[in-house]
Amino acid sequence: MSATTVTTTAGQVRGRRSDGVTTWLGVPYTAPPVGPLRFRAPQPVPRWDGVRPALEPGGAAMQRARLSAPMTGLGSSVSEDCLYLNVSSPAADDARRPVLVWLHGGAFTNGSGALYDGRHLAALGDVVVVTVNYRLGVFGFVDLAAVTNADVPSNLGLRDAIAALEWVRENVAAFGGDPARVTVAGESAGSVLVSLLMVAPAARGLFRAAICSSGTYSLNHGEQARTDVAARYAAELRIGPRGGAALSDLPAEQLLAAQVAVSEQVHATTPAAPWFDGDVVPGSLEQARAAVRPDLTLLAGSTRDEMLFFRRTRSDILLTGRAEIASRLRNALGEEHADAVLARYPRSLLGEVRLSTDLNFARPTAHLAERHAAAGGTAFAYRFDAATPWLGACHAADLPYLWAWGGATAFVLRGAPTSARRALAARLQRHWVDFVRDGHPGGAWPVHELPKRRTLVLHPAGDRVQVDPAAERRTAWAGADVMPHP
């Protein structure tokens, strides 16, 4: 019988076994980032004596409200003490299984690893699944050092993700995993972090493969957005250029209130996001695009109608309208190139959805795969086309399929669980665990090579391989990635 108590580098943890899988929830991977460690880089976990119960998820990162996950039966309160991860494994033995490390999405301001129950994928693929919390919002992705004299390291939330991967390297063997066969994956903001990990020097050697679902580092804050957002926090918190020492003493609720206020002030951007810092990641989009890692195996894709979600929910964190996008494209690409791009999108709701989808998600993700293939790396590309009448194949529509979600959230994103949709879920899950196990998503999924750019289109009616999908739009973009938050 598989052990439920294992020994980590900081001490013993006891999990719970059910239906052939053992889970360890709320396992700390760094010291709590509270008090004097609030705005510090991740620090080692303090050792403990005895056996620590790992039966409930740890606190989610600070955000607006309590999180619950009826689709998984897990939930968590929010807390600054949030740097925990959850492990699901078929057995805590010496089998050395492949490992999937999942970074959640949520616009860098929301979410939790506990929303993603790894038990199903662990059992399906005989793999170890690790879901991770990282610092969010003002606590993890605001350049406070730019507006105060505080010694606040850049991109703390990304540094947390690196620390989690380091924890996996040192500890996952005790849970039945193989630290030499790690795949890091994420969706939306999590996918952005994965793309940054691919070009982060400190993350080298911590994983062998990556899955980017709907997002790349083009969604970082550019110089203007980074400094403007930081200045707004300084104003809300009434912290001047020499007031950085007060940051560790402010109540966490006051920092979160400032984040809410900033989110109401900014337009077409988020109140927190990573940036190119020239430290943990390259110093610019151009440098990141050049820092291709062909030694990694990449799986990358997006949903067909990403931006319908943001239009229907009237979200104000990304550019959605044609006029604003046109202005952004002209500033970034020049009149001639911008007009060539805009000419490929009709002046209609569908044209506007496709234009905003391509700007924010689809083209940068496809370009990531293209650059990887051009550099000699192995890449696989997909487009997720499973649609509902109201939201289409929108942003996050793939999550209920991959994570076997039920309940209201799944119904809104996926629709009724018909036999065809259940079959698509089974195929998608099988592809992902095959990729984690073997570096190939299995089936008839072809390698993404130039110039054919063969892409798997996933659909309830049946999947198909398409050569160079949306070729006319791709040609117009000519490989350009435009940061929506300049």
Structural account:
- The chain is built from 15 helices and 16 strands.
- The protein is an alpha/beta fold and 486 residues long.
- It has a single domain, classed as Alpha/Beta hydrolase fold, catalytic domain (Rossmann fold, 3-Layer(aba) Sandwich).
- The strands form 3 sheets. An 11-stranded mixed sheet has the order 3-4-8-10-9-11-12-13-14-15-16, with helices on both faces. The protein has a 3-stranded mixed sheet with strand order 1-2-5, with no helix packed on it.
- Strand 6 and strand 7 form a beta hairpin.
- Helix 5 crosses helix 6 and helix 9 runs antiparallel to helix 10.
- The radius of gyration is 21 Å and the shape is globular.
- It starts with a strand and ends in a 9-residue tail after the last helix.
- About 2% of the residues have low confidence.
* Share of residues in strands: 15-25%
Helix and strand composition category: alpha/beta
Low-pLDDT parts are: 66-74
E-strand count: 16
